[in-house]
Amino acid sequence: MKIIAMANQKGGVSKTTTTQAVVTLLNKSGKRTLCIDLDPQANLSFAMRAELEEAPTIYNVLKGELTAEDILQHTDSGDILPSNILLSAADTEFISMGREYLLKEAIQSIAKNYEYVLIDCPPALSILTVNAFTASDFIVVPTLADVFSLQGMAQLNNTIQGVKKYSNPNLKVAGILLTRFNHRTKLGNHIQKLLDAATKSMDTVLFKSYIRNSISVQESQYQRENILSYDSRGNAMADYADFLNELEAVLNA
Length: 253
Description:
Blueprint: E1 2-6, H1 15-28, E2 33-37, H2 43-47, H3 58-62, H4 68-71, E3 73-75, E4 78-81, H5 90-93, H6 102-111, E5 116-120, H7 127-135, E6 138-143, H8 147-166, E7 172-181, H9 186-198, E8 206-212, H10 215-222, H11 227-230, H12 235-251
Parallel strand pairs: 1-5, 1-6, 2-4, 2-5, 6-7, 7-8
Antiparallel strand pairs: 3-4
């Protein structure tokens, strides 16, 4: 069983899209996969057609009110522990000692039923992200090829190193994934080279695979349909299939 956090403190970098695409492909290949929506915006829960109206969520689990099994939902896209906006108060509400271990302890009983667990992290280096890192074996960093994403890598790395020092010494960064990437532009290729150099300080790699920009991704999300069933032969699905092959090689190395 491997637990993977999709993380970047910058929003709009396709964390949720990547999580859903990977979950869809893993499920299609017959691998038991669970995803955890740890983002208060609940975009993954919405995209996977989870029940959101008055349904218990990961917030109730972290509060100690329910177990992970109590909130588990089975959708056409896969199994999910859903989220909601109440998680936005996590930094001020979860203040007890050991609060970085809340998620790890909460999912121990359920995670063993799966081969893969994917965590969609919020776009912030908050206690929720620290919880995801503490519970995970690996981190995947989806990112755009722009200067702001490049600048944020140092801050993200500082958080990762802090978690490795204090709560999860075995945590590894599986790699950095370029999303919505246009390899034909000079700026894109320049940022790609800079990101490749930045991976050295994070003891990781820039995945050779990258995800091209695709309107079908936005369309599928609007329709609340996974990209595989919406556009199985499109560029995005082909790119994510290549990425998953590369990711699995890293995870099993």
